[in-house]
Amino acid sequence: MPLNIKQLVDYVDKNDWPFTQGHRLCPGCNAPMVAKWATLTAKALGYEPVVGAATGCLEVSTTIYPFTAWNVPYIHNAFENVAATITGAEAAYRSLVNRGKVDNKKVKFIAFAGDGGTYDIGLQALSGAIERGHDFVYVLYDNEGYMNTGNQRSGSTPTGADSTTEPVGKAKAGKLQFKKSIVDIIAGHEGVYAATASTSEPMDFMKKMEKALEFEGPAFIAVLAPCVRFWRIPESSGPEMTKLAVETKYWPLWEYFMGEYKVTKKPRNFKPVSDYVTKLGRFNKLLKRDDSAEVIEEMQKYVNAKWDRLLALEEISKDKPLRTKI
Amino acid sequence: MPNKLAVTGAKAVAIAMKQINPDVVAAYPITPQTPIVQYYADFVADGLVDTVMVPVESEHSAMSAVVGSAAAGARTMTATAANGLALMTEIVYIAASYRLPVVMPIVNRALSGPINIHCDHSDAMLVRDSGWLQLFCEDHQEAYDMTLIATKISEKDDVLLPTMVNLDGFITSHGVDIFEPLDDGIVKDFVGKWEPKYPLLNIEKPVTLGSLDLFDYYYEHHMQQEAAMKKAYELLPEVFEEFEKISGRKYDFLDLYKMEDAEYVMVVLNSTASTAKYVVDELRDKGIKAGLLKPWVFTPFPKKEIKEALNGKKAVVVLDRAMSFGKEAPLYSLVKSALYDAEQKPKMGSYIYGLGGRDVTTHQLHDAFEDAINDKLELNEQKYLGLRD
């Protein structure tokens, strides 16, 4: 049953939010939206979420001892191991249910991590957890950098963005590499549900979250979620920027299910990627350089090719799953 | 169970684990620990235990999954060695600070580099300040017994600290020896049921575990870990006594061999104690009053017991199978510090031996005793047994 607005309203009318206010994330941060929507979706559908978090903004700002913004069971272990930690809890749940020590209560394990803990240091643990087929949902809030340590580059930082470990300078236009295509890496595990989402499309995200929760196996959702501070954008503009990211093909919305690709939003008209780049202050230094047009041109070619490729993948994989079991 | 089994030390440990039948075992293979988890995987595959086994992709993830599982409320175990333990170390500290009563056999092996797969204690010494209890085992029987004892002490209400059970790589893990297992039912009663107080899986009372612990609480939480360590020191004798009741085997903080009237004492951990006992007997045959002190418990370090045992002895040689570069060897420095306020301080000597699996001979141990007997000990000089010129 697809989750509808009425169910959500009913839930928040009658219950505490699973992720509450009172946390200390920056004004305008998009990470709490992701945490709130993900846990709310689970609760409204009757699941009991047990949450794991990787070290990062969301973690440090929501659990400053002795306070907590979490109304559901929550565990943080370290930076690179949220996938392993949550799968340990999931294994414990299976074992304790088997042995009759814990009631079978539709418990669902959700891991939250930023891009540093996912694209970089946490990739191994995540890959292992997915390969082992644990039943959990991994939600990545992708702000494209190490933000709570002060805007360092990550494997997700886009070309030309200014970061403190690869700044745009006189000799070099910041980070020269493209960002990793994390959902393709996850899709490479094959027995998985994986999707992109954006803070500009909450209903799309919740629908994907529902699919991820229903899937009895590993699921992964990458949500583009701006850090307003280091993206150098107005506090109120996070979702507006991610909307542009979708409209410019910078961040296409698509999903993968056991081998089948599906593009979940196909805008009729696309905007040029320069519309997105010029709105974000983190590209200001790039835009002042003589080679900025070339960098943007490269980016445009890349997003076009990526989009065409996605459509082709959708076409060739339609009704042709690679696997029927994890 | 038959009265006696002739198996490898790894299998003896795996049998103890099988009888405990933990809820979850998460593990990654590493020589010479691998046979423990292999035997355990066989038990799972054959349906002899109903443990959920999580064969992770690295030791870092093994310890991370152990933390997730133990926090969820499951009785959880893993095992490792050397570089595996080094890779886990970040999370080894976290497991102790979350007060998770995990049991982990460590099959002691040299740390890289250069790479070496054989026995020494550099791995155990790497994590000596991590907040885990550390038990050391001379042979198969002790490795089996201590695995059961570890489960009991870790889960004591006021302790709730993880425990490492150390056994020597290859020497104990792969050598075949006779040991006496207890009956399944007796083990089951001894370890009892594990009932966690604040499990993550209690949906009705959600807990937040692993908060950001800033300058206003971190310090106090560390003091609580220290208090738990003191409690473990208090409660260990009770657990040893309970174990003696079911097994007839008596353990204590220290294994004291011919120490009553000893004048020259050797202090050593794990399997080398067997060789040392043989050497003590040889010296005794010659009328020399030799003795051996082997700590079963290394953390919490039994300072008082060591002082009592060594006060008034003529000379003490401490043998370390690990180095602390630029400082005194770990066991030596602790024994020396335990004797600081002894009324009659013995002469002391520090000896490094057996690094990277270098063979330990009776001749070497005789050499150390000879120095003690001939008054040739140097308090502040580290000597090396069996080192090639």
UniProtKB/TrEMBL annotation, chain A:
Matches recorded under Gene3D superfamilies: 3.40.50.970
Pfam families: TPP_enzyme_C
Region annotation Disordered: where it falls in the sequence: 149-168
Keyword annotations: Oxidoreductase, Pyruvate
Domain Thiamine pyrophosphate enzyme TPP-binding: 55-223
Source organism superkingdom: Bacteria
One term of GO molecular function: oxidoreductase activity
Polar residues: bias regions: 149-166
Keyword match Lyase: no
SUPFAM superfamilies the UniProt entry points to: Thiamin diphosphate-binding fold (THDP-binding)
Name of this protein: Pyruvate ferredoxin oxidoreductase beta subunit
Organism: Oceanotoga teriensis
UniProtKB/TrEMBL annotation, chain B:
Pyruvate:ferredoxin oxidoreductase core domain segment(s): 262-364
Keywords annotated in UniProt: Oxidoreductase, Pyruvate
InterPro entries named in the record: PFOR_II, Pyruvate:ferred/Flavod_OxRd, Pyrv_Fd/Flavodoxin_OxRdtase_N, THDP-binding, Transketo_C/PFOR_II
Record-level GO BP terms: carboxylic acid metabolic process; response to oxidative stress
Domain Pyruvate flavodoxin/ferredoxin oxidoreductase pyrimidine binding: 16-239
GO molecular function: oxidoreductase activity, acting on the aldehyde or oxo group of donors
Protein name as annotated: Pyruvate ferredoxin oxidoreductase alpha subunit
